[in-house]
Design a protein that fits this description.
heterodimer; A: Hypothetical Protein Aq_1857, Chain: A; 2 helices; 8 strands; 12% helix; B: Gyrase A, domain 2; 2 domains; five-stranded antiparallel sheet; 16% helix
Chain lengths: 126, 233
């Protein structure tokens, strides 16, 4: 097998959508939960990203972090730092981060106007 | 063992720290455990579980080689490319540098491993055949054509891209149930396949049939007296 990547072949062109300047909102319920999670330490940030996979092709990735190596946009909402990776900004513009309080299927939810469909659990979208 | 040239093979080289995670998130079975020296097949499906392609992955140490079916490459590329996002995955096309062969027949080789000798990589795949990727210019003896392989496939109900494995059928119908992990988490097409399995309703299935038993339109690989067909059961 000749892997062809040493001298000859260039990488296959991958689709790289334009970086979008993201606007997003956080519901009151979600802000209350973030306040619980962050406490008084607002140096932490909520990373809202997208990974490949899930039933519909893309999966949300929410993390509370201090910093990241990813190239991100930072949005500040009522003192909460929200980081959105540029690579997935086109999928996250206009989202609302909500929090649903129920025993089954509760937790943070993303309402995404860019999603054509979502899987039943809400973690994945297309 | 007999060897036939597989003219429609395609080789892409996938590099990066996230390659296995990336593929695992999109394909029907678990590939996260693939280690250097191992090979395995996996299937990419649409949201309706229709097959995009079944590929063979070779873990080569610092990259993963993906042997796919050349006529399906554009669809597979269009499927995976927009989903790379920020993950460390780079894909290179190395098809022009290689030739492809299938080796089949009685063999007791350990399956799921590959070896390379002087530019020729042999992957012993599940399904009882080997996939050979040879650097252009390296001699591989191919004493039969692909028709002999298809005759061998018919007797063992082995599906093949472009015949049984097409975008018309879902992964279970075209004989790829071995590729569908029963308890893997979400991937594209998983909800449909899991529902079929749990309700024991998959509609059509790949079968060996006598030629006169079925409508000609149902035959996917035609043999002299017996054929492969995807039929309603």
């Amino acid at each position: 097998m000749d892997c062809g990547t040493c001298e000859t072949a260039g990488p296959i062109q991958v689709v790289k959508p334009d970086v979008v300047e993201v606007s997003l909102t956080i519901s009151d319920n979600a802000q209350a939960m973030l306040a619980d999670a962050f406490g008084d330490d607002r140096s932490m940030a909520l990373l809202v990203g997208v990974l490949s996979g899930g039933c519909s092709g893309y999966m949300y990735d929410l993390q509370i972090i201090e910093e990241t190596d990813q190239s991100c946009q930072e949005v500040n909402i009522n003192g909460f730092r929200v980081l959105v990776p540029n690579a997935s900004s086109h999928l996250l513009d206009g989202i609302e981060i909500d929090y649903v309080d129920r025993l089954m299927g509760g937790g943070f939810k993303i309402n995404n106007p860019n999603a054509d469909s979502s899987c039943g659990c809400g973690e994945s979208f297309a | 063992m007999q060897t036939a040239r597989y003219l429609e093979g395609h080789l892409s080289v996938w590099r990066g720290a996230d390659v296995l995670t990336f593929i695992d998130g999109l394909s029907t079975n678990r590939v996260l455990d693939l280690r250097k020296g191992e090979c395995q097949q996996t299937t990419f499906t649409t949201t309706t579980a229709k097959v995009i392609d079944r590929v063979a992955l070779f873990h080569m140490g610092d990259f993963v080689a993906c042997v796919s079916h050349a006529p399906f490459w554009d669809a597979l590329h269009a499927h995976v490319s927009p989903r790379i996002l920020g993950q460390d995955v780079s894909i290179f096309d190395a098809s022009a540098n290689n030739e492809f062969y299938v080796r089949f027949g009685d063999d007791d080789s350990t399956r799921g491993v590959h070896s390379t000798n002087d530019g020729v990589t042999i992957g012993h795949l599940e399904g009882g055949y080997d996939l050979i990727v040879a650097t252009v210019g390296k001699h591989v003896e191919s004493e039969v054509n692909l028709d002999s392989f298809h005759a061998w496939r018919i007797e063992r109900c082995v599906p093949w891209p472009g015949y049984e494995i097409t975008a018309k059928h879902h992964a279970l119908a075209c004989g790829l149930s071995e590729d569908v992990h029963p308890s893997k988490g979400c991937y594209i097409g998983q909800e449909v396949l899991t529902r079929m399995i749990s309700r024991n309703k998959q509609g059509r299935t790949l079968s060996i049939v006598a030629n006169e038993e079925v409508q000609p339109s149902e035959i996917t690989t035609k043999g002299a007296s017996r054929s492969l067909a995807i039929i309603r059961v």
